[in-house]
Specification:
Layout: E1 5-9, H1 13-24, E2 29-33, H2 39-48, H3 51-54, E3 60-63, E4 74-77, H4 93-110, E5 115-118, H5 123-134, E6 141-143, H6 146-161, E7 168-173, E8 181-189, E9 192-193, H7 194-199, H8 205-216, H9 218-226, H10 233-247, E10 252-261, E11 267-278, E12 281-285, H11 292-315
Helix pairs in contact: 1-2, 1-10, 4-5, 5-11, 6-8
Bound molecules: nicotinamide-adenine-dinucleotide and (2S)-2-hydroxybutanedioic acid.
Nicotinamide-adenine-dinucleotide (NAD) binds next to helix 1 and helix 4.
C-alpha cells in the first residue's frame, strides 16, 4: 500500500520540525512547500539525510509549486508570519489573511480531499478563513491550538506536583489568545481533578491561579525569550498528534479549533472545543457542561474570536 502523502504548507521553523517528526514517526511521504526558493528543498534534503541514522523510509521533497501537493492526504499549514516581542497574535491578522487566501486556493485546486490542520495565527480566525477560501468540508479543516495550550498546562502541572506528565490531563478551550480558557475542573492527575488536589493540600489556589495565567501567557513567554520568532517544537508535536489521529483513525479526544454549529450554544464558528479525530476528520464535538464561571470565560473568548472574524470580513469583502 502506498504511504500517505503529507503536505506541509510553510517550511519555516514549525514546517521543518513537522517534516522531521513526520519522517521519524514514519507517518508518510512529505512535501515541504514554501514561497521561499531553496528553503523547502534544503530542509527536505537535510531531513532525508537523517534517515540512514534514524532508520526511516520516507520520501522528502521540497517544492515551490502547489502542483507538488497534489493528492495530499494531510496538509498542515504554517505559512505566514510569526509575532515578535511586543506584538499580539492578533497583530498578524492582516498579513496572514492574505497568505490564507493563496494557501486555501492552492489546497482547493490540488488537495481537495486532504485533512487540513491550520497552525497560522491568529489561529481561530485563520482556520475559519482558510476553510472559507478552500471550500473544503468543515469536518476536514481544523485548527491546532488546544493540544498545545493543554500540553503547556500539563507540563506546568507535572512540575508543580512532581508527577509524570503522562499522568496529567488538561483541557484548554476557547480561542487561542489572551482569553483562552484553561479548565481546572476538567484537568486531572490520573483522574483526580485539580480542585480536589488543591483541597488535598498538593498546592494552593494562589499557585494554581499562577499556573493558569502562565498557561495563558505560554506563547508570549517563549516569544519574549526567543526574540526572533515563536515556539515551534511543541506546536509541531501537537499538530503531528492530530495528523496521526486522522491517519490512524485513532478516535483521539483532543481540544481543537473546530467548526461548532449547535454545540456549546454556538451558531457556526471556529473555536477551541473538545473533539474526536478519526478517519473522517472531526467526527464529533464533545459538548461538555460548563459551570457559570467557565461559561463566562468561554463566552468572552468566543466574543474575541468573533471580533477577529469580523475584522477578516472587513479586510476581504469576498469573505463577508
Ligand atoms: N496555532 C498555534 O498554536 C501556533 C503555535 C506557534 C506558531 N504559530 C503560528 O504559526 C505560523 C508559522 O510559525 P513559524 O515559526 O513556522 O514561522 P516561520 O517564519 O519560521 O515560517 C513561516 C514560513 O511561511 C512561509 N510563507 C510566508 N508566506 C507564504 C505563502 N504565501 N505561501 C507559502 N509559504 C509562505 C515563509 O517563507 C516561512 O518559511 C505563525 O503565524 C505563528 O504565529 C501558531
Ligand atoms: O505565541 C505565539 O505567537 C505563537 C503560538 O501561538 C504559541 O502559542 O506559541
Amino acid at each position: 500500500m502506498a504511504r500517505p502523502k503529507i503536505a506541509l504548507i510553510g517550511a519555516g521553523q514549525i514546517g521543518g520540525t513537522l517534516a522531521h517528526l513526520a519522517a521519524i514517526k514514519e507517518l508518510g511521504d512529505v512535501v515541504l512547500f514554501d514561497i521561499a526558493e531553496g528553503t523547502p528543498q534544503g530542509k527536505a534534503l537535510d531531513i532525508a539525510q537523517s534517515g540512514p541514522s534514524e532508520g526511516f523510509d520516507a520520501v522528502m521533497k521540497g517544492a515551490n509549486s502547489y502542483e507538488d501537493i497534489a493528492g495530499a492526504d494531510v496538509c498542515i499549514v504554517t505559512a505566514g508570519v510569526p509575532r515578535k516581542p511586543g506584538m499580539s497574535r492578533d497583530d498578524l491578522l492582516g498579513i496572514n489573511l492574505k497568505v490564507m487566501k493563496s494557501v486555501g486556493e492552492g489546497i482547493k485546486q490540488h488537495a481537495p480531499n486532504a485533512f487540513v490542520i491550520c497552525i497560522t495565527n491568529p489561529l481561530d480566525a485563520m482556520v475559519w478563513a482558510l476553510r472559507e477560501f478552500s471550500g473544503l468540508p468543515h469536518n476536514k479543516v481544523v485548527g491546532m491550538a488546544g493540544v498545545l495550550d493543554s500540553a503547556r498546562f500539563r507540563h506546568f502541572l507535572s512540575v508543580e506536583f512532581n508527577v509524570s506528565m503522562r499522568d496529567v490531563t488538561a483541557f484548554v478551550l476557547g480561542g487561542h489568545g489572551d482569553t483562552m480558557v484553561p479548565l481546572a475542573r476538567y484537568s486531572t492527575v490520573a483522574g483526580i481533578p485539580l480542585p480536589d488536589l488543591v483541597a488535598m493540600g498538593w498546592t494552593t489556589q494562589e499557585r494554581m491561579d499562577g499556573i493558569i495565567q502562565r498557561t495563558r501567557d505560554g506563547g508570549a513567554e517563549i516569544v519574549g525569550l526567543l526574540k526572533t520568532g515563536s515556539a515551534f517544537y511543541a506546536p509541531a508535536t501537537s499538530a503531528i498528534e492530530m495528523a496521526e489521529a486522522y491517519l490512524k483513525d485513532q478516535k483521539r479526544l483532543l481540544p481543537c479549533a473546530a467548526y461548532v454549529d449547535g454545540a456549546f450554544g454556538l451558531n457556526g464558528m471556529y473555536v477551541g472545543v473538545p473533539t474526536i479525530i478519526g478517519k473522517d476528520g472531526i467526527e464529533r464535538i464533545v459538548d461538555i457542561k460548563l459551570n457559570p464561571d467557565e461559561q463566562a470565560m468561554f463566552d468572552k473568548s468566543v466574543d474575541a474570536v468573533k471580533g477577529l472574524v469580523a475584522a477578516c470580513k472587513g479586510i476581504d469583502p469576498s469573505l463577508a
